[in-house]
Amino acid sequence: MKKRSLYTFFIAILLINIFTVGYKKFEQEPQTVYRVYLKGKSIGLIKSKKDLEEYIDKEQEHLKKKYQVNKVYIPYDLDIVKEITYNNKISTTKAIYEKIQDKSPFTISGYAIVIKGLKTQNNEGKKFTTKDQTIYVLDRKVFTSSLEKAIKSFIKEEDYENFKNDKQKEIKDVGKIIENIYIENKITIKKQNIPVTATIYMNEEDLSKYLLFGTTKEQQKYVVKEGDTIPDVAFNNKISNEEFLIANPQFKDESSLLFPGQEVTIGILKPQFNLIEEDHIVEYQEKKYTTEIRYDNSKMVGQEEKIQEGVNGQNKVTQKIKKLNGDVNNVVITNTEEIKPVTNEIIVKGGKKSSYNAWNGGGSAPANVGEWYWPTRVPYYISSGFGYRWGSLHDGVDIAGCGEGSPIYAAQSGTVVKSGVGVFNGAGEVILIDHHNGYYSMYPHLCSGCRYVGVGATVTKGQVIGGMGHTGFATGTHLHFSVWRGYPYRGGVAINPLTLY
Fold it and tell me: For the whole model, what pTM was predicted?
């Protein structure tokens, strides 16, 4: 009995203690605190959210001076959540600050500008979408001013301002009107807190440089030598004349003079946006005469006589031109009026004992300058010339404005050695002609099914061989006409086709 009584006594004492502790717990008032999460993980409780925010702002005076701002904010991945609890393990504001200061960057108020990527294709014709990118500024005016400055690199400032302020002059005879200017990318601007570890653009100069070149790093420099011209310097450094002038805005145009010892910038453009300019242009275009060669077998080879002088004609041409970042992207000729007809030059050459009648039966001698046939119909528009652009050689001239399916002519007589799709990277439907004098001419981007001659075919100068198109890597309907000394891309050297006319 005594043991049982003693056991009962201890149980009673235990129950009394449990009840007493629980009653005191019940009597304690719950408190409102704030739980701090860093990267989703709790790092403690604090009494005041405001105290932590003010402490951070006070401790980060150097950031305020660096970025010239009035306030520094909590890190973007720090969450402070109100909580009601009996837990009395409360951290000090300083203790929480020390846990986060080296683990996550503080933030400052600014703007995030998102430039959306666009669908495009590479040189092999593979389609893809460029990446979105985010640009940070503290003042949105820095972005808008920088973007406008970059736009003026592609469009003359006077033309841009006249378009912007609706002050363009009406076309009475010939002239140009900009019908539209716009950024093809979708751009959004949002006010938000920015991590101080991000790249934050503080001035127009740095941001406009980035928008044009894709970097703020110093561009390559070149010291001008005796006899240098802007086209020479540009070509030898694998950039276009336009790229040179954008990188060196102190020069008005490509005819501006350089002097020995002068330092210029060599910058390859990598625009971070697509600027579209749509123009309406009316202009007089010279229609060049061609040289017609006739052979007289009663005369010896080497004898020749000009029986008719060539006289250039003139057309008045109306065209709609679309430009992408300053480069012509598409051309549509809407009207042509002949002002003066063309008169072709006629030369009679001796054909007796000619050594050139074996391969085509026509007795045609190797082509000389002025004897090449223009490969498209007239009128046309040279949308891109021969030379470097964006760091790579544009090894021909782009001829546009003649329309999808318009005839493509053989520039000289010869034998077709390539006719197919995918023969050359990015060329699409293409024809290659061997002229049997060391020269080859190439006709890429023909319309689908528009190759009218096959491999082995003998063609004559001026013969229709295909139709203009935009197959392969082509942003619009055009012919990329190229002429080579030697076989293309196998040791041959591309020459400027315009030097042959």
Answer: 0.78
